[in-house]
Amino acid sequence: MSFTLPELPYSYDALAPYMSRETLEYHHDKHHLAYVNNGNNLLKGTEWEGQSLEEIVKGSFGKNAGLFNNAGQHFNHLHFWNWMKPNGGGAIPGELEKKIVEDLGSVDKMKEDFIQAGVTQFGSGWNWLAVKDGKIVVMKTANGESPLVHGATPILGCDVWEHSYYIDYRNRRPDYLKAFVENLVNWDYVAELYSKAV
Ligand code: MN3
User: Where does the record locate the signal sequence feature (predicted)?
Assistant: First the structure.
């Protein structure tokens, strides 16, 4: 397969004021597109050509850094656009909420720990909710890595590369993470991924 850039699932203005049109234009049209184009070039002639994106990400990890970085970021961003929606945040679907309370203590504690993981990810990377050994866990990873290459299945991720927040929040990464959790997360999509992961 080759990588293709998807359309955003909402308009460029839809996430304002929490994420601006300008941020989405740079982030989707330039950064994500670069991962797609570089990934396609680096995939050519490798043993992973013709495999699924997840197989390429897992297979190239630790073996082909250039391909992994771009394929990993393509995978992360494909989900990232769907992890947000206009008027996001709010109620978490019942089954998922129950499991979050069971594994992470409470919804408030989950949000606190998720934000803290993003705040403390040194440099570029992502913070996550993932399913590992049947439990929901909070994780953080560097650069283009994700729970996929650490024995877990991602169900929610927030991009804490500066390109994701610097236009709107400058250096205030904690404010960006709080807005992501409270106003942007598409919990229906998280619940859908959770149901597939267990
Ligand atoms: Mn990004």
Answer: none
In three-state secondary structure terms, 118 is: helix
Two tokens, residue 77: 């961003």
- Answering whether pTM is above 0.85, one says yes
The CATH number that domain 21-82 falls under is: 1.10.287.990
C-alpha 93 – ligand 1 centre gap (Å): 27
- For CATH 3.55.40.20, list the domain ranges present in the chain: 94-197
Distance (Å) from CA 165 to ligand 1 centroid? 9
Give the model confidence (pLDDT) of 73-130 as tens digits. Answer: 999 999 999 999 999 999 999 999 999 999 999 999 999 999 999 999 999 999 999 9
Span from the CA of 108 to the centroid of ligand 1 (angstroms): 26
Q: How far is the CA of 49 from the centre of ligand 1 (A)?
A: 24
> Cβ(76)–Cβ(54) under 8 Å?
no
Mean pLDDT of 14-30: 98
Helix and strand counts by DSSP (H, E) for the chain: 9, 3
- Which two structure tokens, joined as six digits, stand for 114? 């998720």
Q: Does domain 94-197 have CATH number 3.55.40.20?
A: yes
